Amino acid sequence: MPDDHTTDDIVHESALQLWAAAQTDFDPFEVPPEEWGPNVVPVRDADIAHDTHLDLAVVRESIGRLEGSRLVAEREGSDVVVTRTVPDDVPL
User: Fold this and answer.
1) Are 48 and 15 in contact (CB under 8 A)?
2) What residue ranges do the domains of the chain occupy?
3) Phi-psi category of 37—alpha, beta or left, where left has phi over 0 and alpha has psi -120 to 50?
4) Is 82 helix (H, G, I), strand (E, B) or coil?
5) Could you give the residue ranges of the DSSP H alpha helices within 1-80?
6) Could you tell me the fold of the domain covering 4-85?
7) What is the pLDDT of residue 61?
8) For residue 92, what pLDDT band results from cuts at 50, 70 and 90?
9) Do β-strands 43-44 and 79-85 pair in parallel, antiparallel, or remain unpaired?
10) CA 46, CA 79: separation in Å to the nearest integer?
11) pLDDT digits over 30-82, tens only?
């Protein structure tokens, strides 16, 4: 089993790729965040778990560690959704 840091890297990369691909109204790599508007499509924790082949509980724990620094997440019922990501090349 990978350590927390490696898991967080895997989850962040998957969230970034899935989230960017889900945006159909804008290209998050070409449009500045302040112009994204209200139509941001979130990515569910289950989608990240499926993409990474990690257990859903592991993905949720990782999102919790990444939230506020590399990911913006919200709770929707029992699900966790990533509403925004921060690419690796953006300084914190």
Assistant:
1) yes
2) 4-85
3) left
4) strand
5) 4-22, 45-52, 56-66
6) Arc Repressor Mutant, subunit A (1.10.10)
7) 96
8) very low
9) antiparallel
10) 8
11) 988 888 888 899 999 999 999 999 999 999 999 999 998 889 999 998 999 99
